[in-house]
Every structure is written in structure tokens, then in C-alpha cells.
Automatic annotation (TrEMBL):
Organism per entry: Candidatus Amesbacteria bacterium GW2011_GWA1_47_20
Entry similarity comment: Belongs to the phosphoglycerate kinase family.
Classification via PANTHER family: PHOSPHOGLYCERATE KINASE, PHOSPHOGLYCERATE KINASE 1, CHLOROPLASTIC-RELATED
Protein name: Phosphoglycerate kinase
GO annotation, cellular component aspect: cytosol
Metabolic or biological pathway, per its Swiss-Prot or TrEMBL entry: Carbohydrate degradation; glycolysis; pyruvate from D-glyceraldehyde 3-phosphate: step 2/5
Length: 403
């Protein structure tokens, strides 16, 4: 995929609307202030922002934060994000109380070269989610072009994604470029053997990626709730384990049976490998731990892959030249059920070829058990990464394509 790039774009002394990827949760600390939980996405934006500053741009930062449902939610303001960005850039970042309006217009008009202003959470306005064109145009006030680094939101057709791109010349930022480049290496002739590891609780946002990558993959190792669906599809009793089996889309008036979908993938061949043993618990609030063969007894739930599975999966991973990992193998937040994710992380760390770890929970698990600096690429997106790997068109990326 060829995109319009920052280095090819005339940005010198321009006023830039920087669409960031700062959809980051916050936490309250002593004294009542809020801080960002994880500054990884802000750090990932620094290369782009420093390039803009060095080119004497005036920078207007735009983002949304979580789901305030079109109204002001004090805990979802962008003030913590502005403070974090200011500290990392080593310069002031002026925080606005809205993303449109007279005060915002004046602040943009008053910007000097190299200065940065951050707008308020765009999702405080209901017009954002419906890609209201008038609202999108207002978001671009006073700006010459859009530099789009919001890869984690590129699968959304919202006012702050596709909307702003309709109204101004635009290009991709360095962070977005890095995501597309790394993920494209997985879909286009990856070096073999290529191993995919998929875990996490839900299969609904991952099964299309599994299906799309099936032909280029050599092995697909599944754990967590994803494995439960595939095991159920194979006729294995998963006891009281969480299984996302049927989804009813009330808008499209259709039913999706994930177990049936998994059965169709299994019928394609033997690339999908389910656990051969599991670590289970009985009371999910205060579980007793036990290691069992793959059949889960009634009243018990699979909470991690077992040691035999960990060893087998790790051996396959270490023999790979390309690895993609999304989703922990179990409830890794509880040390009793973290061994599987730990073994996967240590195995991925030892791969000498391309390694991509995607998603917040997976990256958190990897940081806990391996040297994250040895991983080729950390994909900071969730749904956008999986939709890209599923071969779906991401609306914002389509608008950034080089003609």
C-alpha cells in the first residue's frame, strides 16, 4: 500500500492538523489528578511531531478518548494527554477546553512556528461519530493540511478521521507509516516459516484475520477464549470456559455463529493448533488451580494453556522466521495463570526474523516476561490492526493512498 508521506509533502511553516492516536485511558492519582495509563502512543508520535516542529509548523493536535457518548465526561478530557506530550516534547502544549468554537479559532490564529495546541476530546460532540460534514469542516479551521497518524482509528469513518481528510490536503505521519509497513510484511510474502499466535478472550474481532492469513501462515497457535471456540468446533468439552459462540447483529439483522466459522477454518487443513492441555480454575472469583488434559470438567474453566502446550507452541515459534502475536494465552494478570503467556513471550523474543506483537494486553504481557526491545514491531492498534490483516479496507487509509 503506497501512501502520501510526510517527507514528500510541502509542510514548511504550514499550520498542521495533526490527527493523533491518543485514544489512551487515564487513571486518577493521589490528589485527584488524572494521568495517562500508558504513554506508548504518545511516544510513538514524537518522531512526526519533532519533524513538524523542525519544519517550523504550527501544530493543532486532535484526538478522541474512549466513549463519552457525545457529552462531556470530566475523566475523559485530554488534559492528561497534553501534560504527557508536553513533558515528552520538552515544550509547552496549550490545552483547549473544546475542539471547535471561537476560543479554538483564536488559539489557532495566534499560533507561532513550532507551537503546539491540543484540542479537547472530539467525542464530546455527537457529530463526531456520525461523520457530520459541517462538524468535520469546522475541525479543520485555520489549518493548511492534515498529517494523519491515527492508525488505531483508521478503521473508523468519523468526522475526525475520514471527515477531516475530505476537507484538507493530507499525508500519513511516520507512526502510521511504520504500522502499515510492518503489517504489510505479514500479508505479502512473509519469510517462512510464518507462525501466528492468537489468544485473548473474544474471537469475533480476530477470526477474519485468521481466515485471511491462513494461506500464508505455516502454523496458527490458539489460546485463551479463541482456543475455546476452536476446541468446541472440534467437539471438545470446554466446561464452563468462556466461549463467544453466537453474535446477533441487530442493525444488519444477521446472526454470526463463531463456532461454525471456526469449523470451516479447521476444515481447510491442519494449520490451526489448539491446546493439548490446560490450566483450569473452578470458582472464577477465587479459583483453585489445576492442570488437566484438554477436556474441561463441568464447573471448571480454562484460564491458561498447559505446560505441554506451552512447550510445543514455544518450539514452533523458535523455529519461525516470521511471527505475529495478538492476545494472551490466559488470565496473565493472575500469576497462577500467566505461565502460558510468559512462555510465548520468551519464545517470540528468541526469533531472529520479523516479530510483530499487537494490542495493549499482549504488549503488556510481553513486557512482563521478555525484553520488548528485541521485538521488531509493536502494533499499538487493536481493531485497525486486525481489520488490516483481515484484508479489509480501512476508510482513512483509503483516503491516504497515493494516486
Amino acid at each position: 500500500m503506497k501512501l502520501r508521506t510526510l517527507e514528500e509533502t510541502d509542510i514548511y511553516q504550514k499550520t498542521v492538523l495533526y490527527r493523533s492516536a491518543y485514544d489512551i485511558g487515564v487513571k486518577q492519582i493521589a490528589g485527584g489528578d488524572y494521568v495517562v495509563k500508558d504513554d506508548s502512543r504518545i511516544r510513538a508520535s514524537l518522531k512526526t511531531l519533532e519533524y513538524l516542529i523542525n519544519n517550523e509548523c504550527k501544530i493543532v493536535v486532535l484526538t478522541y478518548v474512549k466513549r463519552p457518548d457525545g457529552k462531556i465526561v470530566e475523566s475523559l478530557r485530554t488534559s492528561p494527554h497534553a501534560k504527557s506530550l508536553s513533558a515528552l516534547l520538552g515544550k509547552p502544549v496549550r490545552k483547549m477546553d473544546d475542539c471547535i468554537g471561537d476560543e479554538v479559532r483564536k488559539a489557532i490564529s495566534d499560533l507561532k512556528a513550532g507551537e503546539v495546541v491540543m484540542l479537547e476530546n472530539v467525542r464530546f460532540h455527537p457529530e463526531e461519530m456520525i461523520d457530520d460534514d459541517k462538524f468535520a469542516k469546522e475541525l479543520t479551521y485555520g489549518c493548511d493540511l492534515v498529517v494523519f497518524d491515527g492508525f488505531p482509528q483508521a478503521h473508523r469513518a468519523h468526522a475526525s478521521t475520514t471527515g477531516i481528510l475530505r476537507h484538507l490536503p493530507n499525508c500519513a505521519g511516520f507512526y502510521l507509516e511504520s504500522e502499515v509497513a510492518a503489517l504489510s510484511r505479514l500479508t505479502s510474502a512473509p519469510q517462512k516459516p510464518f507462525t501466528i499466535i492468537i489468544g485473548g478472550e473474544k474471537i469475533s474481532d480476530k477470526i477474519d484475520a485468521i481466515n485471511n492469513l491462513y494461506d500464508v501462515a505455516d502454523a496458527i497457535l490458539v489460546g485463551g477464549g479463541v482456543a475455546n471456540v476452536f476446541m468446541k468446533a472440534k467437539g471438545i468439552d470446554v466446561g464452563s470456559s468462556f466461549v463467544e459462540d453466537v453474535f446477533v447483529d441487530l442493525v444488519r439483522k444477521e446472526k454470526k455463529d463463531w463456532v461454525e466459522y471456526a469449523s470451516k477454518i479447521l476444515a481447510r487443513g491442519d494449520k490451526v493448533r489448539v491446546p493439548v492441555d490446560l490450566v483450569v480454575g473452578d470458582d472464577l472469583d477465587n479459583p483453585h488451580r489445576a492442570e488437566i488434559s484438554v477436556t474441561v470438567p463441568a464447573g471448571w474453566a480454562a484460564l491458561d494453556i498447559g505446560p505441554l502446550t506451552s512447550d510445543a507452541f514455544s518450539k514452533t515459534i523458535k523455529q519461525s522466521k516470521t511471527v505475529f502475536w495478538n492476545g494472551p494465552m490466559g488470565v496473565f494478570e493472575d500469576d497462577r495463570f500467566a505461565a502460558g503467556s510468559g512462555s510465548i513471550a520468551r519464545a517470540v523474543e528468541q526469533v531472529s526474523g520479523l516479530t510483530v506483537i499487537a494490542g495493549g494486553d499482549t504488549i503488556e504481557a510481553a513486557k512482563k516476561y521478555c525484553d520488548i526491545g528485541k521485538i521488531t514491531h509493536l502494533s499499538l492498534a487493536g481493531g485497525a490492526t486486525l481489520e488490516f490483516l483481515a484484508g479489509k479496507k480501512l476508510p482513512a487509509l483509503e483516503m491516504l493512498r497515493k494516486e
